[in-house]
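Hey, can you fold this one?
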Amino acid sequence: MTCRHHSCETTASYALAGLLSALLAETPLGRDYTVHAVPIVDIDGVERGDQGKYRAPHDHNRDYVDGNALSSSLSPIYAATAAIMGYVRSLSGPLVAALDLHCPYRWGNGNDTPFFVGDPEAIDPALSSLLDRLSAATDRRPESLAFDPEDGVQGFDGQAAAAPTFRSFVDEEGADLAATLEVPYVGTAADPVTPASARASAVRSRRRWASGPSESS
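Sure. Predicted structure:
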């Protein structure tokens, strides 16, 4: 799991905190799987107050360049992304799932509710199973952010399959399920984003994630 490829995306950090709290509290998953997490990829941006998104010549989540056929002759320009690539490739055993947490645009036009990045017309079966389970789970947990499966997968600028993102990198490295989750900054009047709601949604998504890929394979 990775978070804060763009340093300004703070609400995603609460979601990651909820994921990690659930993983540490619930022993079966922790016993069966090894969890790897990078909580802040762009630590320099956080320290400098540089929001990071669309930084020239490219930001951290467009820096996984030697994992992409269009830019295989290049190398990462950020030490953090180079270190992540090296670490992932050093792991033994299969990559069951990889999740990158982000925040979308500020508000409006589908950016006020959580969604996974992808083509809504061609959803991976493992992700489709996860969407249905996540929606059912949030319906039963009123303190979590509502997740609508009708808008659960959306296209997003810069996250096309050819872009050298973390998601495309781990997909090429053989992850069974590679996904980007966008956690809204603001939410809606009826469903505002708070630290507690972001953490609760992440706990629910983690529980459903654990069963989704295996049932769809």
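The chain has one domain: 2-212. Let me know if you want another pass with a different chain boundary.
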